[in-house]
Design brief:
heterotrimer; A alpha/beta (617); B alpha+beta (254); C alpha+beta (163); B: 254 residues; alpha+beta; 2 domains; 5-stranded mixed beta sheet; 4-stranded antiparallel beta sheet; 19% strand; globular; C: 163 residues; Arc Repressor Mutant, subunit A; 7 helices; 4 strands; 50% helix
């Protein structure tokens, strides 16, 4: 067992010793094994690479390192060569030998694995040339590509926990003032000033105070917090320890969504590593600070992201929100003063302490300082995590980093703010992304999900999708939310199924009004945003469904028909063989046709057709 | 500590911490609330007890529920307005889908001009006419029996015995849930000697004097155990107890 | 008490022993661990957890059924989960789920009668780049079509049948 670090000086010496062990010229091949790349076979690539590198033995000092999410999920499995900064994308096991022989030993680039800038058609040799990264300022995510998240030494070698040393030197009051001056606002969605929250908790009376990290990232299509917790767990933990110092908290909880088993494993490991080195527990770094953290798993309830519901869940009760008569900072978990901040908020804290509030507030806009991580997904060329300064426009994110819409399709909308956010159309693309502007536009920052939709996306279907999600996530307490959302979903179902009328739309608006006005928690009051924002910006599409019984995007099954283009069909019989309904008929090598009465519009014929001969109208 | 607030233009004095609903009702205001009971914790579920409230120093009015809103000095409360009635009526419409014939809802529907149902009724609820206010669960828990559970969530929430059973093993048959239920949806059947509720049948204890049933034997035994009394102390119904007291008072030998 | 029951009680006790007695704050963590042990949460396990934590069994059952991550019915051996996250949705995830439901005759959240397969949906696993995706027994399959999914599941269940 490692000895505990007795004081900040011991931490610095420990870091220096790590530096001596690791030659600065040492090359690292960082394989991204974040969720997206992992799902794409990255672990096998990493293992093949490690075996190959080990076989090199003493020939070269090269380390194969499995890292957390490097952000550029579209290119996965992704490989970053440090210190050169070469990025290889879509790496397969077959490529591993070539990479080691050519690039590592021969200093030669494997050109076919380089990313191509679609705008210039040029190959990008280094990470900063890749359009996806070029538009970013990766304050929080940068280290994800450099460190092995299971190694506290990697974190410390990169300067980790020096912010904690600095904070202990500054003392609680100075740390609090620094965070206040930085202008940091909560990254979980509401955007409340973090420093003020901390101050209230610090000033609350009570011997036992809690800090809680909200890692219950439930927004479908958002995985920033997962990437941070999986890819750099110590940065979150260091933020929490500094927060505990500033607020005088003794116990911490990390409340993690159960769908993130790897994040649970990583943060749990990080906590025990920090304990071993004396960065958690009694007398942290020899100071008087006592603080310890435990991990609590969610049970699969989106509503537990709401503060009062999360406290209920942490206390072993049903995660039902209650009106908060007294602020969490005075009476939270077990009735004691509690501070709750989101994963990304905590990860910002060490940077603020180390580089100062002046530096931090120079990034972003006046009202929204720092950077924000967005998970850019949906109908966009470059899917992944994008970290940009606050105030960057939607256009720069979607068309700059995101590379625009694939397959030559037209942009239709971008949904920000998670399920309770709103859909913004093309004429809002130049809106700067910050807390206040998005809200003024009828959407919200939320935790940072950004879902791009193209011309093939039906906005009524999207609104119905979000309602289905939120209705099933309603805790069931309030009549308005519990039954109102389920009914709104049914009413939108009527519209997508062709039985809706203009009266249906009017009833949707009337019911949405009551759900918004009379539900207790934010899940209910904001659940109608997707409906209201699509009605505001895409009313024409609703009207096409009710007046013309037509789904312009070709999505709503009841309003579309599948047919086969006789010109294109070569009678390969593939569709007929795969049709679950035997609805496709035709002779071999003759154009096929679809029997409409049998067709259930499952779309398999279109999926399997190699000649794009199946049409949807 | 007492505070002053204004309810519908009238100055009212109340104890800080009391709910606006209780205070306004004591002041004679008629606010519908189906899930509220002073004896158990509030969950603010039915969303009918809406009010418009303005805090001192704020220039905006909030529409919210009054049962879980504690009074404080200087609140300005309005208990009836077009906006309140509109949203209250919509929430009532939603509740009517679950209990279309419940008298308490029909009466409110008449008051709020809710006539034609615009939404399809709920037909697959495990307990018909239940509006999911959890009063039964809360009352049972407050009495310490914890025989009932709130089960599931969202529109599929239900109340009843735990573990998917028809029977509630921890039930003592006290009937408090039956009394508390606003829509009278909990089936309870008493005969001269037995009570059937939550899948169980209990023996009723008869009053030693008049023979009328008092409560279930199981309930009496639990209460006696709690009070640390012998099970068979005095089996008298409330009426007879009062009678005995008045007879003693009236007896000349006293 | 049958032998299986006796072993089960021992297994439940072993899980509970990882946590302090009478600390209701550990309830959800305990439910996770019990489910990992038994695949689903039996009444016995829940009753014992309640007794261990000093909570009413009704509350433990209420908490269990509140969270969608917990199951109180026997679960199948394999699990096929369709990601219904927003990114997957706009790329056609609903068609995958419909296909899976058609192929298995089981609605999302259910288990085939022979306890071979659980049909599940999840709202985002953070692998949006390769959506629409399904997770079969922990392995993620990206860029799925309804046809691919059909073949994948049929193959799995056919292999089962042969064994």
């Amino acid at each position: 067992m490692t000895a505990k670090l007795a004081d900040p000086g011991a931490l610095a010496r420990y870091r220096d010793a790590l530096g001596d062990l690791r030659s600065p010229r040492q090359e690292v091949i960082a394989v991204c094994v974040g969720t997206g790349c992992r799902a794409n076979g990255a672990i096998a690539v990493y293992e093949a690479l490690r075996a190959k590198v080990e076989a090199l033995g003493a020939v070269r000092e090269v380390e194969a390192r499995a890292t957390g999410c490097q952000g550029f999920c579209q290119g996965g499995p992704l490989l970053l060569l440090v210190p050169e900064g070469i990025v290889y994308e879509h790496v397969r096991i077959e490529d591993v030998s070539e990479i080691v022989e050519k690039t590592v030993l021969g200093g030669e680039i494997v050109e076919r694995l380089l990313c191509v800038d679609s705008a210039t058609n040029l190959q990008c040799r280094r990470d900063e040339e890749i359009p996806f990264y070029r538009h970013q300022q990766r304050l929080l995510l940068r280290d994800n590509g450099l460190l092995d998240p299971t190694s506290i030494d990697d974190y410390i070698a990169l300067g980790g926990y020096s912010a904690l040393s600095r904070a202990l030197e500054m003392g609680p009051v100075a740390v609090l003032e620094e965070v206040k001056r930085s202008g940091l606002r909560g990254r979980g969605g509401a955007g409340f000033p973090t420093g003020r929250k901390w101050e209230a908790c610090r000033n609350a009376s009570g011997d036992l105070k809690y800090v809680v990290c909200n890692a219950d990232e439930g927004d479908p299509g958002a995985f920033m917090d997962d990437a941070l917790l999986e890819g750099n767990p110590h940065s979150v933990l260091e933020g929490m320890i500094i927060g505990a110092l500033a607020m005088g908290a003794r116990e911490g909880h990390v409340y993690v969504r159960q769908e993130y088993p790897v994040a649970v494993e990583r943060i749990t490991r990080a906590i025990s590593q920090a304990r071993e080195l004396g960065l958690l527990g009694e007398a942290i770094l020899g100071s008087e600070l006592y603080f310890d953290v435990q991990v609590s798993r969610g049970g699969g309830a989106f509503v537990c992201g709401e503060a009062s519901a999360m406290m209920a869940s942490l206390e072993g009760r049903r995660g039902v929100p209650r009106r908060r008569l007294i602020h969490l900072s005075e009476r939270g978990l077990w009735g004691r003063p509690t501070n709750l901040n989101n994963v990304e908020t905590w990860a910002n804290v060490p940077h603020i302490v180390l580089k100062g509030s002046g530096w931090f507030s120079s990034i972003g806009t006046e009202g929204s300082t720092g950077t924000k991580i967005f998970s850019l997904v949906g109908k966009v060329s470059n899917t992944g995590l994008v970290e940009v300064p606050m105030g960057t426009t939607l256009r720069e994110i979607v068309f700059g980093a995101g590379g625009g819409i694939p397959d030559g399709k037209a942009f239709k909308a971008v949904q920000t703010g998670g399920p309770s956010g709103g859909c913004l159309p093309a004429d809002r693309l130049d809106v700067p992304v910050d807390f206040d502007t998005l809200e003024a536009e009828g959407s919200m920052m939320g935790s940072g999900g950004m879902i791009v939709m193209d011309e093939d996306t039906c906005m009524v279907d999207v609104a119905k999708y979000f309602l289905r999600f939120l209705a099933s996530e309603s805790c069931g307490n309030c009549t308005s939310c519990r039954d109102g959302l389920a009914l709104l979903h049914d009413l939108l179902g009527d519209i997508t199924e062709g039985s809706g009328t203009r009266q249906t739309i009017a009833l949707v608006e009337e019911l949405a009004d009551t759900v918004e006005a009379t539900s207790l928690c934010a899940l209910g009051t904001s659940a109608v945003n997707p409906v209201l924002s699509t009605l505001r910006y895409f009313r024409d599409e609703y009207l096409a469904h009710v007046d013309e019984k037509r789904c312009p995007a070709g999505v709503c099954k009841a309003l579309i028909t599948f047919s086969i283009d006789a010109e294109r069909c070569n009678g390969c019989t593939l569709c007929a063989a795969r049709c679950p309904q035997d609805a496709v008929i035709g002779e071999k090598k003759q154009p096929h046709t679809i029997t409409q009465g049998l067709c259930i519009k499952c779309g398999i014929c279109r999926d399997v057709c190699k000649r794009d001969a199946v049409l949807v109208q | 500590m007492n505070v002053e607030l204004i309810v519908d233009d009238v100055q009212v004095t109340a104890e800080a911490g009391e709910s606006v609903l209780d205070v306004a009702r004591h002041a004679g205001r008629d606010i519908p609330a189906l899930c509220h009971h002073e004896a158990v914790p509030t969950i603010a579920s039915c969303r009918l007890c809406l009010m418009e409230v303005r805090r001192p120093g704020r220039d905006w009015v909030q529409l919210t529920t009054s049962c879980d809103y504690p009074v404080s000095a200087g609140l300005v409360v309005v208990t009836d307005s077009a906006r309140i009635r509109k949203h209250r009526a919509m929430n009532l419409e939603l509740l009517l889908r679950r209990a279309p014939d419940a008298p308490v809802l029909r009466q409110l529907a008449a008051q709020l001009d809710v006539t034609e149902p615009r939404f399809a009724p709920v037909t697959d609820a495990p307990l018909p006419d239940c509006i999911l206010c959890e009063l039964c669960v809360r009352v049972c828990s407050a009495l310490g029996y914890n025989a009932l559970a709130a089960i599931g969530r969202g529109a599929h929430k239900s109340v009843g015995p735990p573990f998917g059973q028809m029977e509630a093993p921890d039930c003592v048959g006290c009937g408090s849930c039956y009394e508390a239920c606003p829509t009278a949806c909990i089936p309870m059947e008493d005969t001269a000697t037995t009570r059937a509720i939550w899948g169980r049948t209990f023996e009723l204890l008869a009053c030693e004097r008049c023979g009328r049933p008092i409560t279930t034997e199981a309930h009496a035994a639990t209460m006696a155990a709690k009070a640390d009394l012998p099970v068979k102390s005095d089996h008298l119904c409330d009426v007879c107890k009062r009678r005995i007291v008045s007879e003693r008072l009236a007896s000349p030998g006293r | 008490m049958s032998e299986t029951q006796a072993t089960d009680t021992g297994r439940v006790a072993a899980v509970l022993a990882r946590y302090p007695r009478h600390d209701p704050g550990d309830l959800v963590n305990i439910l996770h661990d019990l489910q990992a042990e038994f695949r689903y949460l039996t009444e016995t396990a829940l009753q014992e957890a309640a007794a261990y934590l000093g909570l009413p069994p009704a509350q433990v059952y209420g908490v269990t059924t509140f969270y969608h991550g917990f199951h109180t019915e026997p679960r199948g051996e394999h699990t096929c989960t369709v990601c219904m996250g927003t990114a997957c949705h706009v790329r056609g995830a609903p068609r995958l789920l419909e296909q899976l439901e058609r192929d298995t005759g089981v609605a999302a959240g259910g288990t085939t009668p022979d306890l071979s397969l659980n049909v599940e949906e999840v709202s985002c696993v953070g692998a949006c780049a390769i959506g629409p995706l399904v997770i079969l027994d922990g392995d993620t399959h990206g860029h799925m079509t309804a046809d691919d999914l059909s073949r994948l599941v049929t193959k799995l269940l056919d292999n089962e049948g042969r064994e």
